[in-house]
Amino acid sequence: MNFQNKVWQAMTRRPQRTNSILQALKSLFTPPQTYRRTGQQRRTGFCVSEFLESRELLSGNSFAVDMSEFQVAPAKTELNPARGFLTGPQTGNPLNIATGYLRNNATRLGLTSADISNLQLTNRYVSSGSGTTHLYFQQAVNGIPVVGSNLNVNVARAGQIINVGSSVLPNVSQNTAL
After folding, report:
1. What percent of the chain has pLDDT over 70?
2. Within 10 Å of residue 105's Cβ, how many Cβ atoms?
3. Would strands 144-155 and 133-141 be described as parallel, antiparallel, or unpaired?
4. How large is the angle between the packed helices 21-29 and 3-13, nearest 10 degrees?
5. Lowest mean pLDDT, pick from 28-32, 127-131, 158-162
6. R_g (Cα) of the chain, nearest Å
7. Minimal CA–CA distance to 110: which of 141, 138, 75, 61?
8. Cα 80 from Cα 154, distance rounded (Å)
9. Torsions phi, psi of 24, nearest 5?
10. Which of 52-56, 106-110, 123-127, 134-138 has the lowest mean pLDDT?
């Protein structure tokens, strides 16, 4: 706060104490009185401040939880053919082609049909040059996304599955208590 603001506050906020500019200036250079009020409140100068008690657990036992103990790094599984595609040409919506392939090949990814049904589409775009549709899914349990548990499927313009990448956790819905 600059000097002019202090003078202005001294003249406007304390009219009962300030009868002249000289008294206002004098109040700027004298230390404010500090006295205890009820409880933990203190009045210092122009503001009222409150002292807070320390924040500790009521049990008296302090502890810290390292959440990394409860995080699991999912195994990454990829289905990449040496040459060509994973499937032949198919007609239809690329999303339907991809989800049909995932249901039929869940065991190759180490997943169950329940794991596949818990996937939520998070992003979908088509490459302008190749016409490839890129589909990105995230695993969810009871509608809650599982962090770091993703799956992607790339579908060529003619409906062939190019590849699949997965970091989905298997059997999460069975191992999760409500």
Report:
1. 55
2. 16
3. antiparallel
4. 120
5. 28-32
6. 33
7. 75
8. 11
9. -65, -45
10. 52-56
